[in-house]
Known about the structure:
about 800 residues, five-stranded antiparallel beta sheet, about 25% helix, globular
Amino acid sequence: MAEVSEVLMSVLSTVRVPRPGDRVHKDECAFSFASPESEGGLYVCMNSFLGFGSQFVERHHARTGQKAYLHITRTRKKEDDNNSASGDPPKKKPTRLAIGMEGGFDVEQDQYEEDVKVVLFPDRQEVTSEDLSTMPDVARERVSLSMAGLLAADSVSHALQVQQWDGEVRQESKHAAELKQLDNGLKIPPSGWKCEVCELQENLWMNLTDGKVMCGRRYFDGSGGNNHALLHFQQTGYPLAVKLGTITPDGADVYSYDEDDMVLDSKLAEHLSHFGIDMMTMEKTERTMTELEIAVNQRVGEWEVIQESGATLRPLWGPGLTGMKNLGNSCYLNSVMQVLFTIPDFQEKSVPVSVTLCVAKLGYGLLSGEYSKPAPDPGDDPNGDQVGIAPRMFKALVGRGHPEFSTNRQQDAQEFLLHFINMVERNCRSGPNPSEAFRFLVEERIVCQQSQKAKYTQRVDYIVQLPVPMDQATNTEELQEAERLREEAEASGSPPPPAPRAQIPFSVCLDALSEPETLTDFWSSAVQGKTTATKTTRFASFPDYLVIQIKKFTFGLDWVPKKLDVSIDVPDTLDLSALRGIGQQPGEELLPEVAPPPLMTPDVEVKGILGSHGNEEDDSLYSPLLSPVLDDSTVSQLCEMGFPLEACRKAVYYTGNTGIDAAMNWVMGHMDDPDFSAPLVLPGCSSAPGTTPTESISEEHLATIVSMGFSRDQATRALRATSNILERAVDWIFSHLDDLESMEVSEGGRSEAGSEASRDPPPGPRVRDGQGTRFCSFPTPLQSVLEHTYVTTHCSVAPSLFFFYNFIS
């Protein structure tokens, strides 16, 4: 022990005590998915606070000379059925629909026996807490403080993401304060309830206006009720109902049919008393809606609720067959990354800077097979037969700074795929780029119907979004008959029959993509006015892997988003040869490259191209003095739907103030544009309205942005585009990184054009193009992952429905 004491004293100067703000990596190895639960545990450097698995700690010691590491190992406790043998309390079941909160789902709720000691390299001498008591005071105090600080600190993987998500936050109902209650003399007994229509005795709701007791909604699996409480609301308009059996002195489940949500009723005791119910004497006899939702969420990962229900599955292990643990609503991330790492570009290449390590580490974890092994104890993983990997650091990195992906809320898989591709694009400008496997060119051909002249444009895309033509369903007669029966049931007050699902052939979705689109307010440079045009969309190139998304969300007549309940039979192979664009055709004339005139205020007198304030030598005053007339009511309507103000202004401007429908169509067609939220720039203007001249730009703001690593010219452009407001300029510059990298702005604010070479357009993105046009769905290895690896079965949870097709040359 004396020798150990000497070694410890010699390295004491390198042992640090974590301070607030220090990043402590104690959950996961920096280079692998080793954790304290892994074989060999985790070694946390007591100087840098980085974590290393047993296979990397020696390498870190050799390269840095650090000797003191906190060795953390965890072993899962064994639980008896009644927990009587161990004396430990049983694992808590969730009582709240939340993540990372008291009573909610705990993504790391397993109970572990934890062993902690200090290990001194290179001889791996161990120092336990008991051993420290025999050490000199200075060593004992410093090492003990370091150990306690490391154990108490939040790990980086938790600190970088919002851990809490509360699905039970309810708002006070707008009807609660002034709820109308009928004086009909009705008194509700404390028990023995049944539906007044069908006599069902469970899932019963009492309307708080007239006291009617009726059954609740029918659930997706046919259980629940017969919708009589909902039908009663539709007939009477009485909005609030309380679930009988959930009433206790602490409250009850109250639902607002008008607000379509669970709500709070601050006057619940008074409303119940009106019908003879004493809230203070009631006891709970039925599961609350929260408890029912929790039960469903706990079953999400069980075999009986996935598509392989009833089938006997053979567990697989080995390279490429590694599962990913759900970190709490992270199924969207797991599904996307499992698929991406079946693609050679992502298997063979990595991306630079900080993204390199996390992506390469995730790829190794999924492909090496090191973490796809039978669990040492089958009871170690109740959801499967392998331990798998938990992508905590990866999720924290890719979600850092993002308002959605940094949280534990449910997310859309397609949106995450695009977010990850954008991240890869930003970090791969000077090297191999694996996202090129998805990149393709889209050719848009617009033909002016009056002059028959055409215009061709190309844009880069990564996903094909297919519309769902509901009018092309193959079971139209069945749908019409179901609608007729539903209306009859609604009129008679009887429960409606189960609604059939629309059957849509995949081919008609593909046809809808290729159908010409009519543009009714197209400004034609050939006729110098608005006319009708047709637009067709084709592939200018074919990618190695084609991603197809079925657009199952649409807008109703009231502009409220709704999800389409459809069934689409996706084929194994596609022949897209008919969708190949061929460019300008022989004898076809192109539309002149002339910008449309700006919309102007009625009181502006226009005197030709020079304007009333210009002269023959200088017409630079013309454009800034002309302001567009925009329909404020249309702009406001679009803003109320949640779209950015500048996007709404552009939508109204480019559709010529022709109304909300045309503006909304423009918004939906340009949401993916990189400058969608950028300020409106009028044709002929060098900057957006309200931008600031160079001489008035704040030098202090310029210095602040330049200190962040951007050039003075880039900072100038950002401040000009945002009216010299620093906060907006910083947001703008980070959302226009692609544009800034290829532009050079002079002090005068215009692109340098001192030579002919500078006028050449910048080279476009690298795009692959296959010779053939037949695609097939992913081969057997991916299917094996989807069928046999537990975590990826959560793919159905992600809201987006999309498919990957592999190119055959």
